[in-house]
Amino acid sequence: MPSAFEILKERGFVSQVTDEEAVKGAFEDEVVTCYIGFDPTASSLHVGHLVQIMTLAHIQRCGHRPIALVGGGTAMISDPSGKDELRPLLTMEAIDLNINRIKSQLSRYLDFDNGKGLLVNNAEWLRTLNYISFIREIGEHFSVNRMLTAEAYKLRMETGLTFLEFNYQILQAYDFLMLFRKYGCTMQLGGDDQWGNIVAGVDLIRRKERASAQAVTSPLLTLSDGKKMGKTLAGALWLDPEMTSPYDYYQYWINVDDRDVEGLLSRFTFLPMEEIRELGGLKGDKIRSAKAILAYEATKLTHGEVAAEKAKHGAQSVFSGTRDGGENVPTSVIQRERLESGINIVELFVDAKLGDSKSQVRRLIIQGGASVNGERVVSITRTFYPEDLDESGTLILRAGKKRVQRVKVS
């Protein structure tokens, strides 16, 4: 059986490594305790976090112990990585509310029972720090000149790096030291944008504990069209079903570029690589079946099998023109009185959140991208009444090829 490191490498999770032979040997010869941090800056994780979640999941499936560290302490500062301005600061109460929701999301992918994996909050040691004691113990091990060479800091220096943000690397390094001391954690993983922060922790453990620790980062995932993974017209693709419905989640995956199918299957499903290569090699119309498998497996992993089945049937009902399974399509409700008075197509689409503004919807209609119950709408003055409802008493609105909303009357 291949080691955890070999699996991660084969599936595209490995970019930079402090010592590849040491990392590979550790995964082959011992049970490794390793961690990845997740800052609770929103009430849900999103698809951008999935690379790191899946990294931990593969490691755990190989018998090692992952730590998912939620940043109840670090979120009170601000990670400057990848940002050109200071992030809005959250209250402690907002951070704690976010943590409670994120913990349940992480539990869908990782097993925290009986010590198989650990869910740790760095607020445990960061919120109670004595500043003078901390700086005396840790500060002497950090060179300001070296810190300023980090990409995250260089970018922020152009727009104004605050001292608040400047502390972030020191605190993340301290997290690694505390996890080493408390749980025997010897490896940190993360995205390439975290390399400077992660190796700072490796160096701190070496200096403070005279011990060896390792770092592994994964490449930041962009798609063939150059766009960042997980970005949609409606914003981020959230893992919370209340923020991104399972149907919309399914639709994202089934509509990815043909060129990305194999890479996404390897990173975001647990299917065997042999099967993934076969699916990725399909050409023409056959690649659609590979996308359907990707969409189903990714949705099942995040939302469960029942939700994945409903999303699949909902998509089939809309795009095949049948009504069976239409109840699984994202649905909005309008009052019958409004429909009886007549509701304009532009207003209808805006209410159904298929356009951010009336002007955007007008452009969509003029360009021929709007349809209702399978018929293209060509006039921005088109008005709908109860007699326009289909046999199931609904209107199926479509904006372009991918965005669909079912409207029912109450």
What do these coordinates show?
This protein is of the alpha/beta class and 410 residues long. It folds into three domains: 4-218, Rossmann fold; 231-325, Tyrosyl-Transfer RNA Synthetase (Orthogonal Bundle), CATH 1.10.240; 331-409, Structural Genomics Hypothetical 15.5 Kd Protein In mrcA-pckA Intergenic Region, Chain A, CATH 3.10.290. Helices cover 46% and strands 14% of the residues. The protein is built from 19 helices and 15 strands. It has helices spanning 4-10, 20-29, 47-61, 92-109, 123-126, 131-138, 144-147, 151-159, 163-166, 168-183, 195-209, 246-254, 261-268, 273-280, 287-303, 305-320, 336-341, 345-351, 358-366; strands at 16-17, 33-38, 65-70, 118-121, 187-191, 214-218, 231-232, 235-236, 331-334, 343-344, 370-372, 375-376, 383-384, 394-399, 403-409. The protein has a six-stranded mixed beta sheet with strand order 1-6-5-2-3-4, sandwiched between helices. A five-stranded mixed beta sheet has the order 9-15-14-11-12. A hairpin with a 2-residue loop joins strand 7 and strand 8. Helix 1 (4-10) runs antiparallel to helix 3 (47-61), helix 12 (246-254) packs across helix 16 and helix 15 packs antiparallel against helix 16 (305-320). The protein is globular. The mean pLDDT is 88.
